[in-house]
Amino acid sequence: MKGNSTILVTGGAGYVGSHTVVELLKNNYTVIAIDNLVNCYAKNNNEKPEALKRVERITGEKVIFYNVDIRDKEALDKVFKSHKIDSVIHFAALKAVGESVKIPLTYYQNNIGGSGTLFEVMGNNGVKKLVFSSSATVYGTPQFLPITEDHPTGQGCTNPYGKTKYFVEEILKDLCTSDSEWKVILLRYFNPVGAHESGLIGEDPSGIPNNLMPYISQVAVGRRDKLQVFGNDYPTPDGTGVRDYIHITDLAIGHLKALEKMLQPTFTSWKAYNLGTGCGYSVLDVVKAFEKASGKQVKYEIVGRREGDIAECYADASVAKRELNWTAKKDILSMCQDTWNWQQKNPKGFQSPCQGC
Amino acid sequence: MKGNSTILVTGGAGYVGSHTVVELLKNNYTVIAIDNLVNCYAKNNNEKPEALKRVERITGEKVIFYNVDIRDKEALDKVFKSHKIDSVIHFAALKAVGESVKIPLTYYQNNIGGSGTLFEVMGNNGVKKLVFSSSATVYGTPQFLPITEDHPTGQGCTNPYGKTKYFVEEILKDLCTSDSEWKVILLRYFNPVGAHESGLIGEDPSGIPNNLMPYISQVAVGRRDKLQVFGNDYPTPDGTGVRDYIHITDLAIGHLKALEKMLQPTFTSWKAYNLGTGCGYSVLDVVKAFEKASGKQVKYEIVGRREGDIAECYADASVAKRELNWTAKKDILSMCQDTWNWQQKNPKGFQSPCQGC
Fold this sequence. Notes:
The structure is a homodimer. The longest helix of chain A has 21 residues, at about 105-125. The first copy, chain A, is globular and about 55 Å long. The first copy, chain A, is of the alpha/beta class. The first copy, chain A, starts with 5 loop residues before the first strand and ends in a 12-residue tail after the last helix. Chain A has a seven-stranded parallel β-sheet with strand order 3-2-1-4-5-6-11, with helices on both faces. A three-stranded mixed β-sheet of chain A has the order 12-9-14. Chain A has helices spanning about 15-25, 50-60, 75-80, 95-100, 105-125, 160-180, 210-220, 250-265, 285-295, 320-325, 330-345; strands at about 5-10, 30-35, 65, 85-90, 130-135, 185-190, 190-195, 225-230, 240-245, 245, 270-275, 280, 300-305, 310-315. The interface of A and B includes residues 116 and 120 of A.
């Protein structure tokens, strides 16, 4: 018998979703995970996705799973009618920046339309507590560093993916203004990397990775020839772009802390929190740390800057520390070690059994 | 036999929609109008809305009408499959600022979700030319006056209605970036007022009017006791708020000109145009003009400022003049005369036969 309440996790089979489900289960929450399986591996549509099977292996707890798309109002409603859901953690979204420029409407329909449908069904079922998976991308080009939560949002969000995060934040704020029963926490992630220390779950990008760490990892394992570093003439210590990387387990625990905060009777309306370490690492810092963690050389070449990239971006994470009693604990070496551990044990991601787990 | 192409007009039975349909019919376009009838009067769901019957009376031309909600993908698709539609003029939206604060999700689902569905169905049917009914509200609190089209948008849009206009503009811009076949004109209206000179069609607000002109008109006709003027301590000539009112027929012709512009082979991607007169009139200016036009006294009282209101807002309409060969022709007196004519002939709006038409 679980002691804590029941949490619906949308996009529960994804990278951040699955790691968060681990922390929820470890803390005695009952978890209902839904996912439309577009970005995760399952043997077939009727089976629990492999990531969630591994979550169950890590925790020894069961996850209730439904293959449901958040745009499907009837299916969503059925899930709410079948369980006594207390709160929702909402991850489900398309998330590739480059792809969002090519098929913006798909991104808007999925991320905004789908979120709207979710909020509508939640409201209809009297569930009005939500933790939203947002992103530091809502800040656009930083006007100052480190970025605090009161940095302007929505200005200079140059790609549809980023705009969908910003727009959903605005919808949630307006929802809280309209109805005092809604309680919402917006979590603005910096750059999630790494994997669960067990090596059982991690980031499993399909095709060419969009992000630095999985790319480096695939170079180290020999799956890709070399890393392209986009620009070494930025005004940073070594000229390459500086970002705030955060270990996925720290990030997942941040969701747990946000949930606890939101469930306090004194919490009302909405609040945004940055989830980052507050430390900036350059591309070359990450390459070096990864080489140390893996014992492999990571070949790279410097190429031109990539349009839309900024020199530096890192968080002021002091509000989360003060109000959520949360700080990121794991350093860049640990992020690289866990990425490498996941990569070695799962060279094909979730499609083959974990090797040596 | 019509000489010009077939235009789908969403929200075609509404205030701006119906006046625009008149101008399209007068210029030999075939018009397919769709409307979900939430904001217009029809005897029953299967009948053509009264506004469109009167449009037919004004023009002597037929309008093809479907009772279709833009959120209904299948029904929309059927309309596109049944006609050879060349372009779309998209008005369908909820539009009451105050209501949008109370039921934001309904506004987001209708205005953004519905627009997304429309664009999706358009794309699927190879129709990629659109004139969008936007609003000067996308400029938020003016940073300078008169407002030009390159004034920043999306900053300080304080209500959900305004945000939906801004968000849909952004979606359309991203759509044009993603696919060069899309051609889009965003028309940013200032304050549409007045009615068709025939007195057959006009603004027919349900309940208490949200806007100044229909309110004044209902005071003049004795339906309401007096006008409340929100603040007379603004830094304007007489202390009351100054706005750029534009006659609905001028606005409608603006849509025709935008359509012609968009249909030119040289037009690519998207472009925004202000539709306003460029002249600012204060609340008391409008009261005086209305008294002159109607011969009736308009009682008013000064009350406190209303939250979110700004002192002044008026357009730089020179780009529309230069590129669309369009300027507003009708002055404030004409706007008041036509409003009064409509009000007198239709004291109950569209629900009773037009008196003396």
